[in-house]
Amino acid sequence: MSIIRSSFRALRVRSEGGHQASFEHIGLDALSAGEVVIRVAYSGINYKDALAVTGKGRILRGSPRTPGIDLSGVVVQSGDSRYPVGAKVLVTGCNIGEQLDGGYSEYARLPAEAIVPLPQGLSLAEAMAIGTAGFTAALALRRMLENHQAPAMGSILVSGPTGGVGSIAIALLKREGFHVTALTGKPEAGKDYLTALGADSILDRNHQVMGSKPLETALWGGAIDNLGGPTLNWLTRTVKPWGNIASIGLAQAHTLETTVMPFILRGVSILGIHSVECPRPWRLALWEKLRAEWKPAGLMEHIVSRTVSLDELPAACAQIVAGQVTGRTLVRVAGD
Ligand SMILES: NC(=O)c1ccc[n+]([C@@H]2O[C@H](COP(=O)([O-])OP(=O)(O)OC[C@H]3O[C@@H](n4cnc5c(N)ncnc54)[C@H](OP(=O)(O)O)[C@@H]3O)[C@@H](O)[C@H]2O)c1
User: Fold this and answer.
1) Considering Cα of 37, then 123, then 324, then 230, what sign does the dihedral take?
2) How far apart are CA 241 and CA 73, in angstroms?
3) Domain limits for position 234
4) Are residues 196 and 325 in the same domain?
5) Which pLDDT score is estimated for 1?
6) Which of 43, 45, 47, 202 to mutate to test the pocket of ligand 1 (most atoms within 8 A of CB)?
7) Of 40, 104, 144, 184, which sees the most CB atoms within 10 A?
8) Are residues 144 and 108 in the same domain?
9) Strands 116-117 and 107-110
10) Which pLDDT score is estimated for 3?
11) What is the mean pLDDT of each run of 10 residues along the chain (336 residues)?
């Protein structure tokens, strides 16, 4: 029987009178409601977490709130028989670290519906190395395959490839036999990293000519886009007939300007990817894939570029917002 400490450490973000993020000692009652209490082992830093902690984006709803959209850990108190005390679990998305208190805390109290049993074959650390980033990459690939994307259609362009989503997207695409083109803003610093992940060719985003015609020469079998804005505009104009573009992120801009030409003359599809409220049956099925045939190659050795403590978290978030980080950042809370 685990004993829950009456006072524990959590990162709390307050918005009254300006953004302020600091560590506080709190009790369970301070956390948002839920049936299951988890001793947090690991979390990770996603782009959205970095925005929430630094205050560069309005991610958190409510104040004070604990950020961290991902966590893994061990159940220490439960009002749901599916998750008994001692069970190892993970949570990604489901509004934690946004509307609900999240993973940057020694304990989390969450609704049972958000919880996924830790799949056999994944450790608590590996689950967070994958995290929302890897889960989202898997959701994108699943939707593309369901919409008939196939390697013979041509290379898949991945934008923001040195980031968390992009890195794992490359690893998964290679597992499915695709040729991958990485469009990066770090062509020199990221070259060895991307090549080791399996990228077949690397393009420099800073020097990529994107043209402006409604349809440019068709180059890509499909795309996984983390940037939005001008990059997504260009992708709609350069994806080959029947190709799919998985629209995941807005690291460049939230805008999309294009015409109907790619859709009505090339049959191109844009697939919306929304990992936070992904239907639960899809969520469970994707974690089943990620523990086995889609477990990313080189996950802990290559894709995780660093492991930080709670104390190191705020500085690590600032580096992510500044675009200085490659791969995934793991956050060790209690550890295994
Ligand atoms: N739809 C969903 O459910 C979902 C889930 C997860 C993430 N996302 C979104 O997907 C995007 C990627 O997330 P992530 O966790 O992979 O982030 P990340 O680890 O910070 O990586 C983002 C990558 O995008 C590129 N980048 C960063 N800032 C940029 C800028 N200002 N202009 C152009 N490129 C820039 C960089 O790659 P290069 O240097 O290699 O170009 C960077 O490594 C974010 O917008 C995030 O909010 C959405």
Assistant:
1) negative
2) 45
3) 133-272
4) no
5) 52
6) 47
7) 104
8) no
9) unpaired
10) 79
11) 85 95 97 97 97 95 97 97 97 98 98 97 98 98 98 98 97 98 94 96 96 97 98 98 98 97 98 97 97 96 97 96 93 95
Here the tokens at position 165 are 């989503």
CATH number of the domain encompassing residue 173: 3.40.50.720
What is the token pair recorded at 97?
A: 């670290």
Q: Which atom of ligand 1 is nearest to the CA of 50?
A: 20
Q: Flag whether 277 is in a domain.
A: no
Residue spans of alpha helices (H) in 266-312: 280-291
What's residue 189's pLDDT?
Answer: 85
Residues 264 and 156 in one domain: yes
* Whether 112 and 137 share a structural domain: no
* Contact between 114 and 76 (Cβ < 8 Å): no
Tokens 């950020």 locate to: 67
Judgement on whether residues 93 and 197 belong to the same structural domain of the protein: no
Q: What is the pLDDT of residue 2?
A: 65
Alpha carbon distance 125, 52 (integer Å): 22
Asked if 264 and 303 sit in the same domain, the reply is no
Phi, psi dihedrals of residue 305, rounded to the nearest 5°: -90, -20
- The tokens for 172 are 């998964």
CATH at 74: 3.90.180.10
Residue 60 CA from chain centroid, whole number: 17
Sign of the torsion formed by the C-alpha atoms of 63, 68, 70 and 72 = negative
Residues 114 and 174 in one domain: no
The number of beta carbons lying within 10 Å of the beta carbon of residue 23 is 15
Q: Is the peptide bond before 64 cis (omega within 30 degrees of 0)?
A: yes
| 56, 95, 157, 165: residue to mutate for ligand 1 pocket, most atoms within 8 A of CB | 165
pTM over 0.85: yes
Q: Which residues line ligand 1 (CB under 6 A)?
A: 46-48, 132-133, 136, 160-166, 184-186, 190, 205, 226-227, 248-252, 273-276, 320, 323
